[in-house]
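Bumping my old thread because nobody answered last time. Still need a sequence for this structure:
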């Protein structure tokens, strides 16, 4: 991995993205996009055994030379079960990139490492992923999130900490690092807390939130998020800035538009997405039904309903 403030990404001729863990499994709905393939169309066996789970994980194949596992879902079982149902071997993974340290994105890390079975596998992290965190109610009682497995020693993992933009996958992909909050409507999650020096303290920015960015030849950027705690628009704009690429072909992942506090920004988010004009928008995981419906209604040609087992070929 190379970390530096300015760089250009290698163009990728072919990109495959496979959903391994998400909140929804939809094996029946039709899809009219030629670059989107439901599991029943491509998986060799067992795709009817796929299960949904509150979490997120995708497999990213960059041509035939490099595979990234982006997030690992919420528990040790979902990612392994779904990979087996899709007849996928996680042994092809060359590195793991974690979007942030919340349990529903790192809970399957230990089991994924066991399945990959490689010594010193690079796992790209941010120091804040090691924090104990939670969510505050109106009366300021904090519900602690399940602890991250990163707190323990992980067999086979070579943890690489970075908070700046970083090149991975032999120059074919970018981990954004910390994403600046530059617009006036994506300012963080006010109820988020971190346990620091013996007490719960506000942690609204969730600074370990990062995205994965790939530049596809003749198409543009593909921006992949875990939860987009930095805001999906802030994330896309930052990806454009640090890569110098204006065209955005696809945006995929959790957009965190669920919950009363986050639903207030749905309208503005959709307006900005329309201005950016991606050719594919795949809201997943924590986007919520209101945000997903608004995107589908406003940008029907770009919208794809995310599901475990779906294969995207860009």
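Sorry it took so long. Here it is:
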């Amino acid at each position: 991995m190379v970390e530096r403030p300015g760089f250009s990404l290698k163009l990728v001729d072919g990109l495959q993205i496979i959903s391994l863990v998400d909140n929804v499994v939809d094996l029946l709905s039709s899809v009219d996009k030629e670059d989107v393939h439901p599991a029943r169309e491509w998986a060799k066996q067992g795709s009817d055994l796929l299960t949904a789970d509150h979490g997120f994980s995708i497999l990213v194949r960059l041509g035939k030379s490099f595979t990234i596992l982006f997030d690992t879902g919420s528990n040790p079982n979902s990612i392994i079960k779904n990979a087996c149902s899709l007849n996928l071997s996680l042994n092809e993974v060359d590195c793991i990139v974690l979007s942030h340290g919340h349990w529903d994105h790192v809970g399957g890390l230990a089991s994924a490492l066991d399945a990959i079975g490689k010594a010193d596998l690079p796992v790209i992290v941010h120091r804040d992923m090691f924090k104990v965190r939670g969510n505050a109610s109106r009366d300021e009682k904090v519900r602690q999130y399940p602890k991250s497995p990163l707190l323990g020693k992980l067999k086979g993992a070579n943890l690489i900490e970075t908070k700046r933009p970083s090149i991975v996958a032999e120059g074919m992909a970018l981990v954004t690092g910390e994403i600046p909050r530059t617009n006036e409507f994506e300012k963080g999650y006010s109820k988020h807390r971190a346990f620091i020096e013996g007490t719960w303290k506000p942690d609204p920015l969730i600074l370990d939130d990062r995205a994965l960015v790939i530049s596809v030849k003749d198409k543009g950027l593909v921006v992949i998020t875990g939860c987009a705690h930095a805001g999906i628009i802030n994330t896309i704009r930052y990806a454009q800035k640090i890569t110098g690429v204006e065209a955005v072909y696809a945006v995929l992942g959790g957009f965190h538009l669920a919950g009363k506090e986050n639903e207030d920004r749905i309208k503005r988010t959709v307006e900005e997405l329309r201005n950016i004009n991606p050719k594919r928008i795949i809201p997943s995981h924590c986007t919520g039904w209101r945000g997903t419906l608004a995107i589908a209604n406003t940008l029907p040609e770009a919208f794809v309903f995310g599901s475990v087992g779906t294969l995207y070929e860009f």
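The chain is about 20% helix and 25% strand. Let me know if any region looks off to you.
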